[in-house]
Design the sequence.
């Protein structure tokens, strides 16, 4: 998590906490996309896979303040991805965006 701002680091930590709760893994492979899909789905009012309203608000606020999302980079470290790039990545993967 080197080089992340405090908001980016807080976003990464929130995703880690969800990963730990769901999988007992600090960062389960693909958790960033899973949590993103939960966040996007929750915007319609339905919280999926145990995303609490507090987690939803925290993820949304931090993502908005950062202007992006957190994902593993090629070295396996948490890195910041600008929202435009993240949405393009999601669209390429499965068409889910914001």
Sequence:
């Amino acid at each position: 998590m080197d080089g992340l701002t405090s908001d980016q680091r807080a976003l990464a930590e929130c995703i880690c906490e969800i990963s730990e709760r769901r999988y007992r893994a600090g960062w389960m492979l693909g958790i960033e996309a899973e949590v993103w899909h939960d966040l996007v789905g929750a915007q319609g009012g339905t919280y999926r896979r145990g995303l609490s309203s507090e987690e939803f608000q925290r993820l949304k606020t931090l993502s908005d303040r950062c202007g992006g999302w957190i994902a593993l980079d090629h070295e396996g470290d948490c890195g910041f991805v600008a929202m435009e790039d993240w949405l393009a990545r999601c669209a390429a993967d499965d068409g889910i965006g914001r």
About this structure: Strands lie at 68-72, 78-82. The mean pLDDT is 86.
